[in-house]
What does this fold into?
Amino acid sequence: MLQQLVVKTFQSQVVNWQKEHGRHQLPWQQASNPYRVLVSELMLQQTQVSTVIPYFNRWMLSFPTVEALANATNDQVMAHWQGLGYYARARNLHKAAVYISELGAFPESLDDLLKVPGVGRYTAGAIMSFAYDAYGPIVDGNVRRLYARYFAISGVTNSSAVDKQLWALSEQLTPTENCKSFAQGLLDLGATICKPRQPLCEQCPLALTCQALLQNRVDELPTPKPKKIVPVKDGHFIWLAQDGQVFLQKRPAPGIWASLWSLPQVAADDALLKQATKHGEFVHQFTHYKLNATVWQLDQSHLVKLQQVEEQQPSSWYHKTQLADVGLPAPIRSFIEQQPEFSKPD
It folds into this structure.
């Protein structure tokens, strides 16, 4: 257990720094409520603030309340999320909205928030802190790095043992007052001061008691993850287009790009490819593998066979004027828009 003086000093240093130097103008900080916090936190997972801001603003124009999101269609939700990646977040957000809407009110305790689909320990703590200004421990990538350095904790931070240690520290350090400023201060310090590379230790309010700084271990902490060899996979997609329209199929769930519309994908040994000609190719880097994609062109005579390839999946023709409202994976959209008949306005 941490000494009470250590806890109180840490809390006041973070809160005071945040009030003077932290971020206060982020869009989800304005007119903050549980729904806006939920949307922003799910968008911010694995994604930088600067990328999220325009997505968040557009989302709020279309789905200003949890009820509006609950009533939206899957296609509407995915169209607004396209380009952010990690599309399970969008599906979870939609499920959460339906759950909360049916509940009739937004949960107001950590335990009840953890029952919401897609809401984990961090997101629940963030909602408590930012929406209710109440006790809500948080541990995300920024906080992991900050705590690992401040307490000189060795070991990969998302390993089971270190993760347990970080959450225990967070539960002890999180205050019961000034909760919003404290949580925002942790995130701001991690994002702007205690950065992964070239941290600005001379500007850090915690510098005098930071164990990594005192031990000259800032550059080695947190312990880096072991590097993995990223596998390469081949993908085969079908191009079928006419009169400014392209044939698309909805991707199955679960799986990569689940619930998004895409050029139909077929196996490498599919008989259709024997009758196709190469139309183009693209490369896309996923988190866990690299996709080398080849796009094959078919003509209208193969449409029936193509629809039979994945007959359980919805398929449809989309005109280029409709594509802005369709949820498409970013590399698929980019490929389509590079085609001459889809890059020119009518």
